[in-house]
Structures are given as structure tokens and as C-alpha cells.
Amino acid sequence: MTLADELRIALDGKWRHVREESRTRLAELDLAVDPDLDLEGARDHTFAQLKDLVQTGIPAAGFRESHGGLGDPGMAVTGIEMLAQFDLSLMVKAGVQWGLFGGAVENLGTDRHHALIPRIIDLDLVGCFAMTEIGHGSDVQSLETTATYDPQTQEFVVHSPTHSATKDYIGNAARHASIAAVFAQLVTRGESHGVHCFLVPIRDEHGEDMPGVTTADDHHKGGLRGVDNGRISFDEVRIPRENLLNRYGNVDENGAYSSPIDDTGKRFFTMLGTLIRGRISVGGSALAASEVALSIAGRYALKRRQFGPADGEETLLADYRMHQRRLLPLIARGYAYRFAQNQQVARMDKLQRSDNPDAQQQRELEGRAAGLKAILTWHASRSVQESRELCGGAGYLAENRISTLRGDIDVFTTFEGDNHVMLQLVAKELLTAYAHEVGGLDPLGMVKFVASTVTDVVRERTAASQLIQRLIDARPGGGDDDHDLLDRGTQLELFEDREQHVIETAARRLQRAAGADSAEAFRIFNNAQDHVIRCGRVHIDRIVLEAFTAGIARCEDEDAADLLREVATLYALSVIEDDLAWFMGHNRLSDARAKTVTSLLNDQLDKLRPHLLTLVEGFGVPEATLGAAFLLDPQPDA
Amino acid sequence: MTLADELRIALDGKWRHVREESRTRLAELDLAVDPDLDLEGARDHTFAQLKDLVQTGIPAAGFRESHGGLGDPGMAVTGIEMLAQFDLSLMVKAGVQWGLFGGAVENLGTDRHHALIPRIIDLDLVGCFAMTEIGHGSDVQSLETTATYDPQTQEFVVHSPTHSATKDYIGNAARHASIAAVFAQLVTRGESHGVHCFLVPIRDEHGEDMPGVTTADDHHKGGLRGVDNGRISFDEVRIPRENLLNRYGNVDENGAYSSPIDDTGKRFFTMLGTLIRGRISVGGSALAASEVALSIAGRYALKRRQFGPADGEETLLADYRMHQRRLLPLIARGYAYRFAQNQQVARMDKLQRSDNPDAQQQRELEGRAAGLKAILTWHASRSVQESRELCGGAGYLAENRISTLRGDIDVFTTFEGDNHVMLQLVAKELLTAYAHEVGGLDPLGMVKFVASTVTDVVRERTAASQLIQRLIDARPGGGDDDHDLLDRGTQLELFEDREQHVIETAARRLQRAAGADSAEAFRIFNNAQDHVIRCGRVHIDRIVLEAFTAGIARCEDEDAADLLREVATLYALSVIEDDLAWFMGHNRLSDARAKTVTSLLNDQLDKLRPHLLTLVEGFGVPEATLGAAFLLDPQPDA
Question: Which residue numbers delimit the Acyl-CoA oxidase C-alpha1 domain (chains A, B) (predicted)?
Fold first, then answer.
């Protein structure tokens, strides 16, 4: 076992067997993208690859055994993440079919719908997930599409009342889907019961639009050429009453509505909560793509030389301070986020296997999933972009892969809703005592429920981890400025303390809206919106460092654990440096102490530089699957 | 005249007539990109458009009248910038042919080469600019290609000795160029005289490679599909002696080398200095692309609503604080950079029209050109990216244009060399007393020449502008913490003082390398590299604020000037906020004062929000040419 192997084992986490098998089997499928294919050719190609996946077991992983699946939610997410290491179009296509569409059928449907699942796994039934509309993306509760029950015929009438009600950016909708899981306002007996999901056939066996259905093609995009995104609008399309996915809301033959959850808002968020796996897969897949890009840039930095003394060999890019500053903190973040993502997947897996999942844990998972999705997808965009620039003009050529990743990864920051809205969702969970009951993310709904006291929010949760508390308690100095910034307990305490302060002060600002009229309440919320969103961000920073710390504690190889500790310190210093003005302005770091951050960080670069190749190998993207032509070039001196 | 018209006039600057004419004439040419074209189709399409440009006068603008041009360098750059508002592939293609290739012939050649210029203008002779090699991009002085004089035949033998000597990423090289301006080490009588430029025919009249020449296609890239980038390698290719562009270095029939500039390094940088227009065009064009993206995102923010009170109309995106925070500071930077770019173009124009340009001014222009290129192209990448995210999934569709801009603009950050190297070049100019004589950008060459004193570097230059000095002198408070951060003089003084301090301390660190051996000198340089690069960045921040201030002083409309002042303040606050930890840690802002920055910035957003449409219109990108389908959608309430 090399040190890189040990790192890879630590990063692979609980579903290591899935990763190892995927590395071999997916490499055999030859998933490289051919940029010469035209748009339809690229879509056909990806669809053909999708069929090849059926045999790998990944499609079946996420469904319950009683429905014909493997009942392994962790495997399902891990499998999707591994696809992302190979091709993001294929990852999205798989995610749409088995994760979003199949997930809606499994989680929102009942027995009569579950019978479809074997056909969904086998691609005998190809569907799409018709949630987003032109006019409503992040705000799903306000979708305009309606499904009105007609007791005469015992049908729902699905309708798009306006242009902005058109479903848009829907993967599989332009070509391959024959059926859609359509999110629409359920109306019966003249009353709306909020958003529900309906199965609506959209294409006949010849691929023609069904009567009343109009599909359109979103055509070219910034990337993801293998995914056929499209639009769907409905002109009074009739579907049988049974096509309502009725686990959380049912309409009987006579049009009477019933639901196990009375409150419309709570029902809606419960439904969305069952679909959490999609959000977790998006963040994890983006992270996987960033691992590919950083692997390419890291290897290139160890190969390419530039400038140097007239009388000697030119200097490796990896040996320049600026190059290290651009590359190594991103690699450290990659490690940190991988530990956090693995922890999240394990928690999700446990909850989803449970017959009676803990409501508090489910709520916490939803908050983290939203926040991690935002932070991981931004990290991926930034890492792929920086990797491109770190490879210069060569990074811009499709044959070196990064530019393809860059086009493909871009949309991940707005998948599942705008990342700022994702962080606002985390903040809502942190700031409101009754997040699940809060009707929506609209500002007024939110400020109304801000808890009167949030002072214990961080400490309560941190207490769950004895390890973290022990480290914090053992930190040197005990509260004065002499804390060693290289000490993990000190770092953990800084992150925790910052979170506590940011949340408390945000809550205090929002509490002023209590009793205010609508306009004034909006004004108060809006003035604080950047502060509110910051709550989500600093919260994620903390849980990531905690997950990293916990991950190191689980690492059994001492040398690997030592190296991981140095990486974690670089991560922590990098986060502190990014927010240094806050730590200074709030007297968490004296000016003198703050000035050490940059030099400590630079020292950390020196420590990690000799391990660059090892760190990159630890990401576990086999060199042969990187698909970057320039890594195969002869060495300059060859 | 509307307020927007007045803003546009202020931003259009001295070559307003060129901008106005381009807005009309280029719109008539229908330069929209068809994403359905395959790669060869896209290249043909762009090449056909290039031919349409000949009649506009833009191609002739940059060449001297005596060579058949218009002798209007400012028009040449402005014309290229306007192309960038329409299509970046066309801009690059035009820049390669008339700017880089034509510019090399004009500026490095003599009479016998200048005779070619009318054919270059007319596209009768299509060339490429073969500088970058696989192994050497930013470090042009170390190119490996050789041109060895053979007195027997009176020819140069052009040769690529290694794989890494292959010319790469060369625009026009894959298809359209028949001739290349090749940068190679000139060797005669066994001695190398450094990099010179040679005209080398690369294709015959049938488009076949000339004997000894091997071209290859770089094929797909992250964008710029209309540009045929390719590779060229030379296997002992013979060209007549006269094909040396011999203005700065000549070889006589017998192989004797002569040059008006003795020092090899100085000669090299003088030659590069004559090609400055390319660098200025790259920054200006990136800025133009960012204006398009921000115009689209700004208009979308005024159209799209999301979330809102259950009982009322949903809120416009533009009314959310977070949305304003993401969009308005980028718009303010766009304004700031446009004033700085216009100032730079005017200075370049003046120098290039002069028979005897001032050496100090030329040197300063070169430093600024490198620095502005870095800052403007990063700004463009960031603005296009943020605009994409501000438009959500819709921003990812090609039909809404931003995603195409995003793919195209990406490479600008490494055009002309990596942006960090560009900033290092500025730093070199600031830190060394004899920048022009310094052999190169290699660390040792640089530290050797660090001036023993740089203390007056900022003040000396600032003194050139009486207006700036007057504002600084008139600032309130006179040095204590009560400075009003909204006061321009205070802002200018903060920027100037920061630059002075950063440069001084960097110089002091580098001076330690005096007398050190190579390894130790490299270590000292490398430890300080991030600090050195920061010199370039803070220098550009200062000159941009000064240029903005000067631009406002020239604005004749009072209302427009008032609005521009608010925009300039947002720019200044945004720069200060980004570097707040520095201002605090170096006692330029007390903790209390620093805490006001964010709220002052937010107040500025409130002030500017009502002017969002006006500010966007001020960029002068006609709505009809934005090419974003969703701006034509019916309003949500329609």
C-alpha cells in the first residue's frame, strides 16, 4: 500500500467497494466524449451509454428491494458520483432517469406506481422530472401549472395557464422521455391543495407529442451536450385520477382531497424532503468533477516548466509560490468537502433505510444537503476554472478535457435552485424554530418564524460529537490571542464561534420584523439578506471542518493521517484567510495574530508541495481515465 | 438626450464616432452565431464575416497611411472592441490577422515587408502569429524554434528541435493562414541573437502544407468555434534571408548580424513593446464582452420576479439585496475599467502617432497594458460567470447568449500569457529601476535589478495629475480615522497609500536577494511571489480609480456626472471591501471604520438600484444586438 492508496481509502469512505468497482467497470465502457458528434449524435451517444449502465447495478441501487431495487441509497449516490468522474452528461442523464424521475415515483407514489419501477430501472420506461417552469425555478411552491380534478371523468386536467408556466430546462424532455413526473398545483372542488406530482404521458410510441402536449427543444447549452433538455407545456391534458403520485395527498373518485399531513407548507416540504437524494448527488458529482480537473492541473504542474535561471533547468510550475497558492488550497478544500460529502451520504443512507426516520435528523440532513450543494458546486466551478487557467492555452483545448468539464459543470451552481437560495434555506433551518412548518422561503414567511432565541443552536449540535468537543477543550491558551492557529481545537472553536455570532446577530436583525407590516418586514429582511445567506455559508464551513476532523480520526494508517492533518490545516487556514476581516473586526484575531495567517498558510504550502502527486492520486481518479492528451506528451527534455 | 445617452457618451470616449458607426454597421452584418454549424462550418462562417469587415475600414485603421492604412491606432483598437460586442470569434480572427500578424509585419518589418500590407488588409494574404510554443507561452524569450542563417544559400533554416518547440494554439493556423510570422531564435555564425520574427509560408495555393512544414488542428476548444487554432512545426524549412522582419535586427548576405539595439534583452522587449496594441485589444474586448453579459443579466433582473408575499406580486430579482450585491458592483467595475481602458487607448494612440515617442511613457504604457489586460479579462470572466448564474437555468441556454460568451471569454485570461505573469510584469516595471534592461521575467533577472529605493514611485506619478492631488489634499479629516469613506480624495489616498506600502515592502523583501547565490535568490523571490504580484494588482486598482475620476471631470452633463460619482464610489467601496483585512491590519482603517464599509456599500446599492436600467443602457450595447431570446419573452403577467 502506498501513501496515496491509504489516502484514497480514507476518501473513498463507506462505499469504497462501489468506487473501486466503478473505476474498473466504467473505464471498460469507454465513456470518453467525442466533440465531433453533432447535438443529436451526442444525445444518442449518451443515451446508448445509459443503456450500458443498466447491467452495472447502479440504476437499481437506489430503489427498495420490494420494488425490484437493491435498497442501497448510499450506493446509488456513490454510483452517480463515479459516473461524474467519467462524463457529466451521462451523470445527469442517469440522475434524471433513476434519481429524479424514478425517485419521484418511488417516494411520492404508492403501490400502483411502484409497479413501474422495474421498467424504469431497465429503461423500458424513460421519464423526465418536470418541476421547473420558465417563471419559477427556485420558488417551486409558486409553480403555475395546474392539475384540476374533473369528477365527471375521474381525470385530472393538466394545464399551463401562461407562457411562464411552461416547464423548462427539463432533462430528457426534448427527445427521450415518454412520460413526465409533472409538478402542479392540485385543484379539486375549486380549492387548491398546493404542489403535487402527476405522471403525464408526453410522447406516443412514435415519439410524437401526446394530444394537448407541446414539447420543444432547449437545443444548445453551455455544456452537457449529451442531455436533451427541453420544454413542455400542457393544453388541458387529461390523465387518469390514478396518475397522481398519492403518497402525501389523494383525491378520491368524488374529488375529496385527503392527506396524512394537514398543513400545506409542511406537506410540500415533506414531499421535497423525500427527494433529497437528487440534491446530494448534484453536490457529490460536482465534487467528483472538481477532483478530475484538479488531478489534471496537479499532474500538469509536475510536468511543465517555465522560466528559470539562464544557466540551469527551468522551474516546474508546481514549484512557484503563486502556482501553489492557486492549486493546493483547492485540493485541500477538495479533501475537506469529500469527507463532508461522505458523512452526509452515510447519514442519508441510514435515514432512508429506516422505517421510522428521526424527524430532527431528517431536517438537519435537508439543511446540510442544501448548503453543501451550494458550497460544493461553487467549489467545483472555481476548481475547474482555476485548473483551466493553471494549464494555460492547453487547458482550453477539448483534447485536454478541462474545457469540457468547465462547460458541463457550470449549470450545477443553479441545479436544484440558485445557490444563494440554497444557503438561505440552510439559514431558515438554523434561524427558525419551526423550519418545517414555515410555508416557504418567501421573506415574510421566514421572518415571521425567526426563533426568539437561537443562542444554543451551534453548541447543541456540536455537543453531539465528543471528539470535536475534546479538541476544543484541549486547545492551548484558553481563550486569549496566543491560540496556536495550527491547532485543530483552536480552528474548530474559531469556526464554531463565528457561526454562533453570525446566526445570533442575523436573528436579532430579523426579529425586528416581528409585528411589522408587510412592506417594512420585507425591508428588514432584504437589508439583512446578505447576512442571512452568510449564516448558511459559515455553518457549512464548520460542519466541513468537523467532518474532516472526524474522517482523520477514522483513518487507520498513521502516515496518511499525518498528511491529512496537514491538509486539514491548510483548509482551515484558507477559510480563515478568506474571512480575515471578519475575524479581525470581531476581535477573534488580533492584528498581530491575523498577520500570521498568510505566512502560516504559505508554510503549509511548503509542507504539502512534496506530496502534490500523492494528494492528487489520493483523489482516486486513475490517470488513464483523466482523458487529458497533454499528460501523454513527451517530457520537455525527451 | 436621456441620462443613459449621456452616460454612453461618457463611456464611449474619444473614438465615439467609431463606436456609433460600428453599432449600426455591424448590426447590419448579422453576426449572430449559429450553434448548429459544425466546427468547419463555424470556421467558414467566421471567415466569411471577416471578409465583410474589410469594407468597414476597421482593418485598415491600425496601419500607417504610408503603408496603405488609415493611421488611426485608437480606431483600430476601438473597432476590435466593438467586434467583441457582437462575436468574440470574429474579434479574435480579426485581431490575429490585422492586429497580430499585420502588426508584426508593420512594426517589426521594413519597406520590403510593408509592401505586403495592402494585401493583408484586403485578406489577399492571410497570416498567423506563430509565437507561443507547447513548451513556452508566458516565457517568450525562451522559445525553442531556431532560424539559422546559411550564407551559402542566403537563407534562414527554420527548425523545431523538439516536440515542445511546436507552435501551438495559433489562430488561423489550422485552416486559413498561408503564411506565418514565426518567432524564433536567430542564429548566425554560430551565435544566437535572441528571438526575432520571420515570415514563413506555411501553405501552398491548394492549402497543402509547404515542404518541411507540418500543421495540425487544435480542433475543439472551450469556445471560439469560429477560430481555427492549430499547430505548426518546422523541419529545416528554408526561407529567403529577406523574410526576416529586420527593423530591430538584420543579417547581411555574409551572415553578419547588426541591430540598432545592442542589448539582447532590451532589443527583445523593444520588439514586444511595438506589439502592445494586441494586449490592449484583448483587455478591451474582454471588457466589451462583459458589458454584453451584464446588460443581459441587468435587463433580466428587471423582468424576472421570484418569491414574494402570498397576497401580492412577486418581487423583482433586481429588488433583492443579494441580487444587487452580485450585479451592481460588477457594473460599477465595468464603468471604472471602461474609463481606464479609454485612457489607455488614447495614450497608446498618441504614442503610436508620434515620430519620437517618449521612452518613459512607452514603458509606463507597457506596464499598464499588461496589468489592465489581467484585471479586465478576470473581470470579464467573473462578470460573464456571475451573469450566467444570475439568469439561472435560462442563462445556460445558448439562445440566451451568455453561455456562448462564457465559453468564448474563458481563454482571454491566458491570452498574451498567464494573468499572474502579466501582473508580475507590472511589478517588474514598478520595482526595478531599469525594467527595460532586465533580461527577462525570470526570478533572478528580476531580483538583481530591484531598485535600491522605490519610495517615490507612486507619488511621482500621481503628481502628474493635478486633479487627483487636489482631491487628495482636500479630503476631510487630514489623516485621522474620521475620513469620510465616501469622499473621493479619501478613497484615492487609501488606494495610493496602499500601493506605496505594498511596493515598498515587496522591494525590501527582494533586496535581501542582492548578493545571494542563485538558489537562495530564487527562494527569496519565490517566497515573495504572491506579494510581488500583489504590487501589480493594487497599482491597477489605483490607476483605475484615477482614470474614473478624470473621466467624471470630463463629463459635461451634470446629472450624468452625479450618477457617475455614485458609481465610482461603489467601485471604490467594493475594492476596499475586497481587501478590508489589509486596510485593517495595516492601520489604514480602524475596526470601527472598517465595519462601516459594508453598510456604506449597501447604501450605495440602494442609491443605484433605481438607475439599473440606465446604467445598463449606458454600456451602449443596443438591446436588439444582445441576442438573448428570453428578453423577448412575454412578461409574466402578460
Answer: 273-431
Within this chain, do residues B241 and B311 fall inside the same structural domain, yes or no?
A: no
Q: Is any Cβ of chain B less than 8 angstroms from the Cβ of A410?
A: yes
Distances (CA, A) of B222 to B289, B406, B408: 16, 9, 7
Contact assignment for B530 to A315 by CB distance below 8 Å: no
Q: In what helix (H) or strand (E) does residue B583 lie, and over which residues does it extend? A: helix B580-585
Residues A131 and A252 in one domain: yes
Which residues lie closer than 8 Å to B606 by C-beta, 6 or more apart? none
The reported pLDDT for the residue numbered B453 is: 57
The answer to whether the beta carbons of residues B63 and B73 sit under 8 Å apart is no
Single pTM value for the model: 0.97
- B512 and B460 inside one domain: yes
Check whether B461 has a pLDDT greater than 70: no
pLDDT at residue A431, as a whole number: 87
Number of domains in chain B: 3
Do A152 and A235 fall within a single domain? Answer: yes
- Cβ contact, residue pair B522, A407, below 8 Å: no
Residues in chain A, pLDDT under 50: 463, 479, 637-638
- Rounded to an integer, what distance in angstroms lies between the CA atom of residue A327 and that of residue B59? 41
Note whether A389 contacts B419, CB cutoff 8 Å.
Answer: yes
A150 plus A59 within the same structural domain: no
* Last residue within a domain, chosen from B228, B263, B298: B263
Tens digits of per-residue pLDDT, B286-320? Answer: 999 999 999 999 999 999 999 876 667 899 999 99
Per-residue pLDDT at B482 exceeds 60: no
Does residue B168 belong to the interface with chain A, where contact is any CB pair within 8 Å?
A: yes
CA of B276 to nearest chain A CA: how many angstroms apart?
A: 20
A533 to chain B: nearest residue by CA?
A: B322
Give this complex's ipTM. Answer: 0.96
Instruction: Supply the CATH number for residue A30's domain.
Output: 1.10.540.10
Q: What is the pLDDT of residues B250-282, one digit of tens each?
A: 999 999 999 999 999 889 989 999 999 999 999
For residue B589, give the CATH number of its domain: 1.20.140.10
User: What is the residue-averaged pLDDT of chain B?
Assistant: 93
Asked if B484 and B562 sit in the same domain, the reply is: yes
Which of A384, A389, A595 should be substituted to probe chain B, the one whose Cβ sees the most B Cβ atoms within 10 Å? Answer: A389
Q: What pLDDT shows up at residue B638?
A: 37
Indicate the residue type of A421.
V
Longest CA pairwise span in chain A (Å): 91
| pLDDT of A513 | 87
d(CA B615, CA A364): 42
Q: CB contact, 8 Å: A274 with chain B?
A: no
Same domain, B201 and B239: yes
Containing structural domain, residue A235: 127-263
pLDDT tens per residue across span A54-71: 999 999 999 999 999 999
3-class DSSP state of B557: coil
Looking at B121, B143, B162, the residue that finishes a domain is B121
Angle, vertex CA A47, rays to CA A129 and CA A92, nearest 5: 45
Nearest to B518 among A142, A218, A309 (CB): A309
The count of CB pairs under 8 A between chains A and B is: 249
Interface check A418 vs B, CB under 8 A? yes
Chain A residues 506-525 with a CB less than 8 Å from chain B: 518, 522
Residue of A nearest to B37 (CA): A38
Answer for the pair A90, A226: CB distance below 8 angstroms, yes or no.
Answer: yes
Interface test with B, best of A36, A138, A220 (most B CBs within 10 A): A220
Output the DSSP codes for A25-64. HHHHT-----TTS-HHHHHHHHHHHHHHHGGGSHHHHTS-
CB–CB contact A634 B163 (8 Å): yes
**Helices A359-390, B359-390: crossing angle, 10 deg rounding:** 150
B637 within domain boundaries: no
